[in-house]
Each structure stands twice: as C-alpha cells, then as structure tokens.
Amino acid sequence: SAAGWLLALVAWYGGQDWPALLPGVACGGAGAAVAWRIAAGRTAQPGMRVSGATVLSVAIAIAATLLTWHTAGGGRH
Questions:
Q1: Residue in 62, 40, 58 with CA at minimum distance from that of residue 50
Q2: Pair 9, 72: CB distance under 8 Å
Q3: pTM for the complete prediction?
Q4: Secondary structure of 18-57 in HEC code, one letter for each residue
C-alpha cells in the first residue's frame, strides 16, 4: 500500500503525465483495501496499544513526504 502511494507521489512530483500515476494508485488502493479487510476482522479492545502496522504506515508516509519534497526541490518557488 505505502509503496504504491510512494510510486504515485514520485510520479506526480516528477512531472509525469497521469498515466504514470495509475500503477501507484492501483497498488496503493489495493493495499489499502487489504489492510481495511484485515482490520475489519479485528475488534478494538479497550487499552489496546498502537499496532506496529500503524507505526510503520506513519513512518512510511513521513518518508514519502520527505522524499517527494527532496526530489521536487528544483521546480519549487
């Protein structure tokens, strides 16, 4: 999921046309759907800690944001 969204962000900030975004959006959407189905099968328990998947997702989102800011630095104003 995160790899798909990262691919879409890199293509977007790399100045690619919209067809280049399709693989990233498809992989990101499929990964999100699988994660949602897995999470729907679990019941939230009181006092439950943050899962490793949540921490990993946040870390990957931050890394993707920093990577896109770094790679898009030349075209910014």
A1: 58
A2: no
A3: 0.39
A4: HHHHHHHHHHHHHHHHHHHHHHHCCCCCCCCCCCHHHHHH
Residue reference for tokens 């798909």:
4
d(CA 77, CA 56): 32
> What is the distance between the alpha carbons of residues 16 and 1, in angstroms, rounded to a whole number?
20
| Per-residue confidence (pLDDT) for residue 42, from 0 to 100 | 62
Contact predicate 28/4, CB 8 Å: yes
| Dihedral, 5, 7, 9, 11 alpha carbons, nearest 10 | -150
Total count of residues recorded for the chain: 77
pLDDT in tens, 45-77: 555 566 777 777 777 877 777 777 767 655 554
The structure tokens listed for 41 are: 């099968």
